[in-house]
Protein 1
Amino acid sequence: MTEISATTRCGFVAIVGRPNVGKSTLLNHMLKQKISITSRKPQTTRHRILGIASGTDYQCLFVDTPGFHGNINKTLNRVMNETVTSVVNDVDAIFFVVERLTWSAADELVLSLLQGTKVPVLLVINKIDLVKDKKELLPHIQAMSEKFDFAEIVPVSALGGHNLPSVEELVKKYLPESPFLFPEDQVTDRSSRFLAAELIREKVTRQLGDELPYEATVEIEKFEQDGKVLHIHGLILVDKKGQKRIVVGKDGERLKTIGTSAREDMERSFDTKVMLNLWVKVKSGWADDERALQSLGYIDP
């Protein structure tokens, strides 16, 4: 652990925004390492995930959150919203991520959540690489500044890495003086077992797109190192029998593709050879069952 000094800073920064604005991509690029899964499908992130960025004199603890949304017709959706609400009340600064030149009712909903906060809110305008006429950025930034007293407004491209060093420098001054809370080489508080489940779920989401609704999750049944090989057994849970057929695919080809892609990512992340076995099981109503959500790690016991 780093000793406390007058120049040592450490604090928590929440990353919030509506679904699919690039919060997890921003986190991964700030850490220069993948710890939060991504896809083009909204609500890919379902858990609070801590990413730890350590410099010589600072440690920034980024809290990636699920996309905040108005659709709370299922227990899972309500739990994800509660995760966001609890995080913004317990951090030292907030990144509010929006995209390009758009401002929607969903963005307004997130802003309403931040109205009572007493910590600095930095507006991060993501995906500016997709803005064709950059002259439109300044008027948009001006319009955004009139919506809320943002501490900073920063245009970035999380995927391309544009302006992220500036964000890193800006956020340091909002961290309180404090010793480091984690070892300097640690990048997350999540276990490798959790990351394995998330990597499998990412591949399911990317492979199936709109074919599979949100009623799919992953449970790791075995995670054991045997010599130089890490043996992982993953169970993909879906809500209906028809969804199981979709995940498995013809002659098991789709499940095989998901497994191969997930295994390759795991071997990069865990720096070891991985033997991955996947199964698909129907567990009806899991997304609306508090006991099931607790056993799957969505709700703290």
Protein 2
Amino acid sequence: MKSAIHKHRLAGACAAMLCLAAPWPALANQASLHLAIGDPARSGQELPLVLDGIRDTARGDLVTPAEMAARMAGTGILFIGENHTNLDFHQVQFRAIKALHEAGRKVMIGLEMFPYTEQAVLDNWVAGRYTEEGFVELGAWYGNWSYNWQYYRDIFLYARDHGLRMVALNSPRNAVSLARSKGFEALDAEARAHLPPQIAPATEDYKQLFRSVFDRDDALHMQGPMLEGLYRGQIMWDATMGWNAMQAVKAEADPRAIMVVLIGAGHVTYGMGAERQIAPYYDGRISSLVPVTLVDDSGKPVKQVRASYADFIWGVPEERETVYPSLGVSLMGALGKVPGQIIQVSKDSVASRAGLKVGDVLLSLDGTAIDSANTLNRVFAGYRWGDSANARISRDGVEQALAIPVRRSKP
């Protein structure tokens, strides 16, 4: 039996891939941590995991953030894998960025959160043209990304205050949808310009990593064309984000430049994602850093991890619940005529405990009309554990009020 927090994330991951709302995140289960894939020099070795310790998997020793930055002296691109709703993962990203900046590197920050068409938004933020509230609203944070701004706030403030360039890396969603449904050959010239000349296909190792995240009884247990389409969608994200990151660092004349890419861990681990797509075209050094929780999704301790999982592994504590609550639903959104209709309710989520059901139409939340998934994400981001929301819903054509207590699933 998986933990409630895992079931919530897994359902969200399934909905994301099916609805193309956001890239699939890697989940910290035992299967995905111990695969004998990746760098052959390390794929046969397991290394101990230490809470708040950073393991250099090539040398096997523990290092401080400053020592890690020193060992990246020759690195031009650093991929840092994240779990989007785990604050400890984002603190690892922040600490790494800070250590590299303090080491005298010219740090650029590449972002999965924004498609490359939104670069002006990030330029305006770093230039100080937005207040924080203005950036979240005018920069369409919840339109480009569904996760709470507070998870990323420290990083964005540090980048603005220190003039660190931020780069939009992701594919527009319509391009990913086209690649997933019709193949890469269906992409137009603009989308192709943000991809490597040759896209590395889904190898058996890649498929093994992809499958390891999901159990046989999970909703993503698919076969045939649908599964192949999911592989293409994931590869599209890998290739576009990797290629855009590489082009940005190549265009930077400063030899001290390093592109730090904040990206879902599923795009980083074992070098199977973005790194694999750009390695043939980049003659510099690519490094990876991925946090790993000391407890897996079923509550079992994680004592070791495969050495080929990442170049640096940072041990972080168990997370029982997300720091910031989420409702736990997916809406029809732009896919249908009723944007507020619920198409998925995560098990053990705030929504399921409040009695929301698939097919319900979420009309409003504390007086704010819910006209899109983006509006719902923006509004719900203001709630904290212990709050209560008053919703208006339509169920079977009948409008009614529904109280939604914002409470954790377990002590």
Protein 3
Amino acid sequence: MAQGVSQKWTAQDVPDQGGRTVVITGANSGIGLEAARVMAAHGARVVLAGRDRARTARAAEQVSQAATGAQAETAELDLASLESVRAAAADIRARFPRLDLLINNAGIMFTPYGLTKDGFELQFGTNHLGHFALTGLLLPALLDVPGSRVVTVSSNGHRAGRMNFDDLMHARHYSKYTAYGQSKLANLMFTYELQRRLSAANAQTIATAAHPGTARTQLARHMSPLASASMSARFAALNSWWVQDAPMGALPTLRAATDPAATGGAYYGPDGLLQLTGYPVLVRSNGRSQNAEAQRRLWAESEKLTQVTYPV
């Protein structure tokens, strides 16, 4: 349930972002692209990180047109390859020694069974482990920057997720829905454990999270044709209560990234029925995501799997 915060927060409420450098993963479409446009229009220098060079370059061109003087650059990043994650992090840190904001936005959903280049189940490896590694490698550029943040995009799907520590990669039994739920639960558990560590280190950086509700994006491309059709904008008169366009879906991410009142561990989502649509407010994740012992265990497993350790 939404907490007592102001309603109808919109992109117009984003404070001036002049002088800030922002890295957004998966920013070549959907929510990531919308967030990049808004951040650039408010003065931020935005680094769009994506695996497809041509698509990312086209998206950066769109972002550069968001406002006079908008700044957009690109970085090549494939979250399904730790080699690529390390190369992208090195490239970004070489060009931008000081970062103000990292938005872990990229994700995949309901994919057929597959493995990353490092042998991880594809959804867990991309949605969680890739971002865990990238954040750890970029964190030194954020830690001493006042007002810096790490925002990780989760999903309502986390509520169906369970951390199967005995079979994190679903090698014994694969359900694309179960695997997705686990990866989105991991996003939240990662955020909460990261915030605990940042607080203990008295770091300048905070960790927040967001979810878009149900948004029309390319993330739904692995859904059934019937489910995809039911979300179509052609049927907005019927489905507007449970699905919204990408600009609205991006608002929780933008609020988690820029609201001066946001605190470490804050989680934002839509204020409508079942948090499916609406304007961004503080929301609460499920009890499993709040389990501190499981958070620590996930962190230890993630360090072991990625071979990335954090400076906090």
Protein 4
Amino acid sequence: MQEKAKVILKTKKAEAVRRFHPWVFSGAIKDIEGHVSNGSIVDVYSNKMKYLATGHYQESSIAVRLFSWNAIFPDREYWQEKMERAYRFREKLFGDFSHTNAFRLVFAEGDGMPGLIIDVYNDIAVFQTHSAGMHQIKSLLVELLQDIMGGKIAAVYDKSSDTMQRIKNEEPENGFLFGDKSRTTIKENNIKFYVDVEKGQKTGFFLDQRENRKLLREYSKGQKVLNMYSYTGGFSVYALDGDASYVESVDSSAKAMDLTDENITLNNLKHENHKSITTDALDYLKDLEKNSYDIIVLDPPAFAKSRSSRHNAVQGYKRINALAIDKIKPGGLLFTFSCSMVIDRTLFLNTVTAAAIQSGRAISVLHSLSQPADHPSSIFHPEGNYLKGLVLKIE
């Protein structure tokens, strides 16, 4: 067994680790004893040389991602136990996967494997690593995945190029770790979608909106619905399946609009009740007449990916929400979301509230929404609770 280096924290910087927060920032480190490189397994110590936790080291703002508060050296059995535990929990959620076969198998800190995302799309798995340590053991993780899922996986695609760019000297290319299948058909609450893991956004589909799409379906009967930033039409298909009278999908990507139309056909839904519009979402919102829709869905990409861009992001969220509120018929609904990790729930609520005040309309909150249970967030790591949503009734 190789000897681990010791990462020693500055005075008063150990408290977060003692409270089981899984990140050690570079500015908290006083000294390092021993050799470290990207991906090294290190033990973290207080300024008084008391052991605190063990994790993966890397040259980045988040210098250590912690996976154990016991002084262990993780072997194959250690990671296998974590992967098996994650899979057993998804079996509890989705049973035999006959109704839903697309889900997040591993959600980083929420599953005790910080720096690792594994999404399963029917017979394709997508790996996305955020740490050098997890990226270096991906071959082992692929073997464990195949063992745990009993040969159900035909291909594993590594989509870590963008997420690993923040780490010094780490610039991996996307590619297959096993097999070569990139496109499949998934089922989500018995609704079907085409997914292309190689060309699609994120890991291929926005799995975190599953239950929120289902909620929209329950409100959609007889309603005119506008789905902004619609991507491949997830919310649109659910609305049509819920007997919406008419749905418009708006996205700047022509390829996404083409796939939206394919998904509508896949589910035997009526194209005459739907229109795909390829244009800038903000421009489209500005040009709409007032009282145009019964329901508007705002699910934009992350406006802020760092704290330095948070102010501009807040202004962006306020602007699009104010525009949407202005276009909704009296008694209509606004489904509004933010997936920006640096925009917490309180700030998001305050931003939407500011837009509501600007509108001068009476508005009530019907639902406060988040990510589903296959995206669990550790109670010690609030940053993992990234998806915020509200359903507002506009008078």
